[in-house]
Amino acid sequence: MHPFESHIRNVPDFPKAGIIFKDITPLLQERFSEVIEAISQGINWDEIDHVVGIESRGFILGAAMAQLKGKGFIPMRKKGKLPPPIIAESYALEYGSDTLEMIINTKAAKVLLVDDVLATGGTLRAAMKLCEKNQLKVTSMALLINLTFLNNFKEEGLPVHSVLNY
Q1: Taking 70 as the threshold, does the pLDDT of residue 159 lie above it?
Q2: Which of the residues 57, 77, 89, 101 is marked catalytic?
Q3: Crossing angle for the helix pair 57-69 and 25-40, nearest 10 degrees?
Q4: Residue 109: which H helix or E strand, with range?
Q5: Does the pTM of the predicted model rise above 0.90?
Q6: Pick the residue with more confidence: 158 or 85?
Q7: Is residue 50 within 8 Å of 34, Cβ to Cβ?
Q8: CA–CA separation, 43 vs 160, rounded Å?
Q9: Closest CA to 60 of 30, 87, 89, 25
Q10: How far apart, in whole angstroms, are the C-alpha atoms of residue 44 and residue 78?
């Protein structure tokens, strides 16, 4: 068992019945700097201009990673949270649907896409499409948790770095 696992709380039936939510709040409270170090390893930082963090826990992880590695940070938010001009991508979740938005980017760049948990891959695929539409080339992805029993995420051969795999 990975030392981080004892700090992750399983919350049954959240956000809806049948889902077991992985709450990383206790882990971030107890071992934040170790988490950021671990999720930042195994990434070719020379080929990254900016870190894109997916709302909301991807903000926490991604912003800290960008700070650690001296990179810029770009927030990717849920619908209606960013001022215009924005670009959007809608997608299906395992428990509904949602829309991600970014402020329109004016200069091509290479990015690392960061989120807390990869479940079925819907959010990550939408985030990749949104980056692509916004002149941002995703060169790799970093996740704290990959729920491999729910996905077989292979997206265009890009490296997917995850600290914990279930």
Answers
A1: yes
A2: 57
A3: 40
A4: strand 109-118
A5: yes
A6: 85
A7: no
A8: 9
A9: 25
A10: 28
Residue whose pair of structure tokens reads 């650690």 in the numeric block: 68
Whether the pLDDT of residue 93 is over 80: the answer is: no
Name the active-site residue from 9, 30, 31, 94.
Answer: 94
57 counts as catalytic:
yes
* Residue appearing with tokens 């870190």: 51
Domains and CATH numbers, the chain: 43-165 (3.40.50.2020)
H or E segment and range at residue 67: helix 57-69
Instruction: Give 6-48 pLDDT, tens digit per residue.
Output: 999 999 999 889 889 999 999 999 999 999 999 999 999 999 9
Mean pLDDT, the chain, rounded, equals 93
Compute the average pLDDT of residues 99-106. 96
CA distance 150 to 88: 25
